[in-house]
Design a protein that fits this description.
By secondary structure, the protein is α/β, with parallel strands linked by helices. 43% of the residues lie in helices and 18% in strands. It has one domain: FMN-linked oxidoreductases (TIM Barrel), CATH 3.20.20.390. It starts with a helix and ends with a helix.
Length: 247
């Protein structure tokens, strides 16, 4: 079974932990990885960031893959981060108009991904809310948080272009997660799985996103600061799946 089928095409909602190689020392990662391994609701580990030195991603991924059975998925900020993993989110930044992040980096990286024999999951990537390190690096502007119709039509276009997933991200370190109103409108307008990331720091944040229509939510900075948040998010995922069973 492919990683896409196993995680994003599963009937159950889940969450992924995003690890930034630029902020993570492989030698000090063991406690967090141990917690990740014991939580069934965590479906995958995403690895990547906006600003990562060459070689750092590969060292971290090798360390993680040797100590977990969960899929390790590349979430690359640029082509230099491509290395062997279980899969890669082949991100096209469809909320921006920078050709490098719509198709340019993809042309450069595609031969290496094929050589590695790595599963590429075509993903329409949409930035929402305030500017972040990703918007700075990609030289694009996010969709404003109140522009629900614009986010929705962008997601519809992403599906029509053939993407397997839509990933809406409020950005690393944001204080404002994507609103449940925007998530619900996008979810009801597309027929592919929806990933939501950025600003989710509590049971309530996670539950709102999942009930609104997120298939998978992504936790990054919050987990790095306090691993106990992972159990809180796991409870939200568990409760959301129970509601699905009822309906």
């Amino acid at each position: 079974m492919s990683v896409n089928q196993q995680i994003f095409r599963s009937k159950n909602k889940s969450f992924a932990v995003l690890v930034d190689p630029d902020k993570t020392n492989p030698g000090q990662f063991a406690p967090l990885l141990s917690t990740i391994n014991e939580i069934a609701e965590i479906s995958a580990i995403f690895v990547g960031g906006s600003l990562v030195p060459d070689g750092t991603t590969e060292v971290l991924i090798q360390s993680i893959r040797g100590n977990t059975t969960k899929p390790v998925i590349l979430f690359p900020g640029n082509v230099n981060q491509i290395c062997a993993a279980d899969a890669i989110l082949f991100l096209s930044l469809i909320s921006g108009r920078n050709p490098e992040y719509l198709i340019g980096q993809h042309i450069t990286g595609a031969p290496l991904i094929k050589k590695l024999g790595m599963e590429a999951i075509s993903t329409g990537y949409i930035l929402v809310g305030d500017p972040s390190s990703t918007t700075y690096v990609s030289n694009t502007s996010p969709i404003p948080s109140n522009e629900i119709d614009l986010a929705t039509t962008t997601a519809i276009a992403g599906e029509m272009l053939g993407h397997s997933l839509i990933y809406m991200d409020a950005g690393s370190g944001t204080q404002h997660p994507i609103s449940s109103e925007m998530i619900e409108k996008v979810y009801k307008s597309i027929n592919i799985p929806l990933i939501i990331g950025g600003g989710i720091r509590s049971y309530e944040d996670a539950k709102k996103a999942l009930i609104a229509g997120a298939h998978c939510i992504v936790i990054g900075n919050a987990a790095e600061k306090d691993t106990s948040i992972l159990f809180e998010i796991a409870s939200a995922v568990h409760d959301s799946n129970k509601l699905l069973e009822v309906h």
